[in-house]
């Protein structure tokens, strides 16, 4: 629509005379872009191509740098792609809407501003050309080009900018659509996984009355799998399917399942059938069901061939079941159950190691030992009991990750190990999110990580609130409200992924970082004095 408007303006101002060679360049550039737009190249790559094309247009003194900024639902701009200039991480603060306030409107919705408030480029006396990106009537953001302040665009250049804005708008829309598709794909997969997982959780509640066992067991299994360097898809299957290992217990009578004393040989024979019952419950041919069935069927098989139900030995036992067995036994031993006290971590680890080559695959046991710092952390992150803040935990130091986006500093420590461990884990999740965005892994991965971060934040909040209540934290309600406000904002961001994923990924990243750092330093820190008093 605005194109027609623009042509009307051109006629009105008598600007219909065009330089043929510039027109040719326009056609080339727009053609190049539309070809690029049909591939799966990202926005950065498209901008690189654009710069190359712009370099070929004579008499157009634009600089070899450009960026795309897109607007969120609150009118705030985020730099989502760039070429020849600093990435969003370094430039993000620059594109707040006030930067555009001093801008001058050109015909056809084009905007230019001569007063960039970035100190780095002020010396260069550049002006910015903001080419509006639209989807029909909806404003998406701008393509930003830079040119010397002395440059006055010729009418034909204005024409060129308009054509360009139109082509880039189309490209952004297509990129957006691709990302939205990925968010839906993630949602669908998650709904599927949740439906299966809820089966496992149901069986576990009946048995041990703790949902955390599931959470710990699948995370421990994943930590072992990471050391073993399992392929990514296998790790995902393991994480989702491991909680279903005991789903067959649904078919075991209460008198046996909940019996406090030792089972008689007959009762034990019945108890053993939970493996084959699990196999029959988990029918289906999709990869997740297959993995769940393998784990449920073989998690009591032993490496030496003396396990049940079949007596499989060594590598006949599926890998995911071998890993699940170690994770399950370790977590069960170190947890309190109605019929037993918890073993210490050391005792349980010694037992697992002593069973290497007997119950367990030696390679999995080795990986378990390597993963121990991570496993200890998982146990602290998902604890069953109310936390005693005075209990001094001996968590191994978490190694500082190389090139972390937000670095953990000692200033962030509030001096309670459990809470500090939670906070550091949240930092790690945010750094993972940064890596995924920075390496352009797409909205499927972004949605997954954003959800994981928010879920984990909730686990952390509930723990922290419990501890605050326990210590008589002043104005706990206010603190709880802050947590709730975070959850609401995070939910909003997640939902916006469905409509505006290109912007929301940056929006979410900056929000998570800023909120967390501020909240820890200004609010959580108050807990310290209560505990150390
Ligand atoms: Fe079992
Ligand atoms: Fe808090
Ligand atoms: Fe906190």
CATH architecture heading of the largest domain: 2-Layer Sandwich
Q: Note the overall shape.
A: elongated
CATH T-level fold name of the largest domain: Beta-Lactamase
Instruction: Report the end-to-end length measured between terminal Cα atoms.
Output: 68 Å
CATH class group of the largest domain: Alpha Beta
**Number of DSSP-assigned strands:** 6
Low-confidence stretches: 1-18
Relative strand content: 5-15%
| Integer tally of domains | 3
Structural class, by secondary structure, is: alpha+beta
Structure description:
The chain has 533 residues and is of the alpha+beta class. The chain has helices at 2-12, 20-37, 43-56, 88-91, 119-122, 155-208, 212-227, 232-241, 254-257, 265-272, 274-281, 287-298, 319-333, 345-354, 362-370, 372-381, 417-438, 443-471, 476-496, 501-524, 526-532, and strands at residues 66-71, 77-83, 104-105, 111-113, 126-135, 138-148. A six-stranded antiparallel sheet has the order 2-1-6-5-4-3. β5 (126-135) and β6 form a beta hairpin. The relative contact order is 0.08. The model is unreliable at 1-18 (pLDDT under 50).
């Amino acid at each position: 629509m605005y194109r027609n408007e623009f042509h009307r303006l051109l006629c009105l101002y008598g600007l219909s005379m065009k330089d043929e060679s510039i027109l040719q360049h326009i056609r080339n550039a727009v053609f190049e872009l539309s070809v690029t737009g049909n591939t799966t190249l990202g926005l950065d790559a498209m901008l690189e191509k654009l710069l190359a094309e712009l370099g070929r247009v004579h008499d157009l003194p634009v600089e070899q740098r450009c960026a795309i900024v897109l607007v969120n639902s609150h009118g705030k701009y985020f730099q989502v792609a760039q070429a020849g200039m600093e990435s969003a991480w370094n430039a993000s603060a620059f594109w707040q809407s006030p930067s555009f306030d001093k801008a001058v409107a050109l015909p056809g919705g084009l905007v230019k501003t001569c007063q960039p408030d970035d100190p780095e480029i002020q010396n260069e006396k550049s002006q910015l050309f903001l080419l509006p990106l639209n989807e029909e009537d909806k404003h998406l953001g701008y393509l930003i080009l830079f040119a010397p302040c002395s440059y006055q665009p010729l009418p034909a250049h204005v024409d060129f900018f308009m054509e360009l804005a139109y082509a880039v708008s189309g490209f952004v829309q297509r990129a957006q659509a691709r990302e939205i598709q990925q968010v839906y794909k993630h949602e669908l997969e998650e709904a599927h996984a949740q439906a299966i997982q809820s089966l496992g959780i149901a069986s576990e509640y009946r048995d041990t009355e703790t949902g955390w066992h599931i959470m710990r067991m699948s995370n421990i299994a994943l930590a072992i799998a990471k050391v073993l360097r399992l392929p990514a898809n296998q790790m995902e299957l393991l994480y989702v399917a491991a909680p279903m290992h005991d789903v067959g217990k649904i078919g075991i009578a209460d008198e046996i399942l909940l019996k406090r004393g030792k089972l008689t040989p007959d009762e034990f024979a019945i108890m053993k059938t939970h493996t084959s019952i699990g196999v029959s419950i988990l029918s289906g041919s999709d990869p997740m069901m297959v993995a769940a069935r393998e784990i449920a069927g073989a998690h009591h098989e032993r490496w030496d061939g003396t396990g049940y139900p079949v007596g499989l030995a060594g590598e006949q036992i599926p890998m995911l079941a071998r890993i699940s067995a170690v994770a399950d036994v370790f977590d069960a031993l170190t947890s309190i159950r109605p019929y037993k006290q918890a073993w210490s971590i050391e005792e349980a680890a010694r037992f697992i190691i002593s069973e290497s080559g007997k119950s367990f695959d030696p390679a999995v046991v080795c990986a378990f030992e390597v993963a121990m710092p991570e496993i200890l952390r998982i146990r602290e992150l998902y604890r069953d009991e109310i936390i005693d803040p005075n209990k001094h935990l001996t968590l191994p130091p978490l190694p500082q990750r190389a090139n972390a986006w937000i670095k953990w500093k000692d200033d962030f420590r509030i001096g309670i190990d459990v809470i500090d461990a939670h906070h550091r884990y949240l930092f790690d999740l945010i750094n993972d999110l940064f890596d995924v965005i920075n390496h352009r892994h797409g909205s499927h991965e972004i949605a997954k990580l954003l959800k994981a971060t928010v879920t984990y934040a909730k686990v952390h909040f509930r723990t922290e609130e419990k501890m605050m209540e326990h210590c008589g934290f002043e104005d706990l309600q206010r603190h709880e409200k802050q947590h709730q406000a975070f959850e609401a904002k995070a939910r909003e961001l997640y939902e916006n992924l469905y409509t505006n994923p290109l912007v929301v990924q940056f929006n979410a990243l900056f929000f998570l970082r800023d909120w967390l750092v501020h909240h820890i330093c200004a609010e959580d820190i108050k807990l310290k004095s209560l505990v150390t008093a």
